[in-house]
Amino acid sequence: MIRTALFAAAALLTAAPAFASDPASVALTFDTGASTGAVMVALYDEASYGGGQPIRAARIDVAAGEHSVTFEGLPAGDYGVKAFHDLNGDGRMNTNPFGMPVEPYAFSNNAVGNMGPASWDRAKFAVDGATSQTISIR
Q: From 2's CA, which of 18, 72, 83, 137 has a CA 20 to 30 Å away?
């Protein structure tokens, strides 16, 4: 009887990591000030947030009434989002001659940058299972 109980306990302990590694998802909803163009969104991990390639990316067609995207099959961890509202539909963030953005942009946690993008520490959020966030683009 004790041997069976120990075997069952050992089986549960070894199975626990399988539950922890189940894929997670991030549902992002964007609150925009305009109803034209598209929101260009990129999801990053800590290693890529400062300038690497995003883990996932999407184009949300605001002109067609879309305002959200879900990234599925993610490993649990910390992520950050950078997004901008591509008002003119050219697929890139437009800037003035001094390099300042002229199209609305935002970061996860509605974080604000100081003379540049929001820092990783301000923008990061934990993803474990189904996670959602609403981001205001202004």
A: 18
